[in-house]
Amino acid sequence: MSLVLTVAVALPLIAYGVALWRVSAPGIDIVYLTFIGAPLLLVVMALAHVQMTGRSAKKRAIAAKQADYERSHSGPQSFSFDQEKWTHENADGKQEIPWSALQTAGESPNTIYLEGKQIRTLVPKRLLDAATLESLRQLALPSGVGGESRIGAWDYLATQTSILWRKLWILLVPGNLFGLAVLAWVAVRFFAPGEKSGVLWGWGLACYFAVLALSAQLWYFLLRYATALKAFRAPTIFAFSARGVRIVSQIECSFVAWDILQKFRETRRAFLLFRNDAKFYLLVKDRIPAETQEQMRQILREKVKQE
Fold first, then answer.
1. How many CB atoms lie within 10 A of CB 107?
2. Which of 240, 236, 239 is nearest to 252 (CA)?
3. Mind listing the pLDDT tens digit for each residue in 39-97?
4. Are residues 173 and 161 part of one domain?
5. Are residues 62 and 129 in the same domain?
6. Which of 95, 102, 97, 107 is CA-nearest to residue 133?
7. What is the pTM of this model?
8. Helices 2-23 and 29-72, packing angle to 10 deg
9. 81 plus 110 within the same structural domain
10. Cα separations (Å) of 182 from 18, 167, 209?
11. CA dist., res. 172 & res. 167, Å (int)
12. What share of residues in the chain are helix, strand, coil (percent, to 5)?
């Protein structure tokens, strides 16, 4: 994201430097080199920063996974379950957790994890036969009423922009008004008669940055959507049960208990299920029949606070 923004800023500056070099008098090469060389240096630094940040983030993620494994999953353990609870025993002792206390769960190609308030159990699927695995799957990842959802660019943009304005409208309103005023002033100067070509390039550059800043609340979210994992844009299946929400994506099948969700909001095109103010699930309704939508709406109203 930072690299794309740096390129968006650097390209017009380089173009401005080239324009100055072509139309201005000789003898001020340092100015041209500043407008051309400095943005190129910024792009190179941004590329280096992306690579360093990526390597650092990968190391931190691996270290966190290793620490989690050493803390919760190393050493001899035993696991069993029935229709009422699951039992996890390790060096710290034996714990029995009712399925009603399950907060989150998930299935990946190799494991199933179960998480309660003070325990996280990781179950290797290779240790279970097909019938036992299917029984565990039904208890940990209960199905229910639901349908398929696919997040489109418009749904993502409209949702994120709406949330942004709800949170920061007191800053966005004066900021946008000021930006429009600056853009109008720059446009007047740009089209003023008698301006030299080099000066026109400068006003054009100022106009570009004003538009870039004003439209950031739109293109930033579109850029995030375009650069997200393919699985984020692929169809996802949501199912509401008495205990929570089952979410089936291309990456994994997961479960979130109703107690984890703080609130929900319904718009004309989607349900928004909030885990907190920063994280939410976007369930687009256009692929779900109206009758099923009504059933899901009733379950949400019974289980989660409506905003």
1. 20
2. 236
3. 677 677 777 766 777 777 777 777 766 766 665 555 678 899 999 999 988 877 888 99
4. yes
5. no
6. 107
7. 0.75
8. 170
9. yes
10. 25, 24, 10
11. 10
12. 55, 20, 25
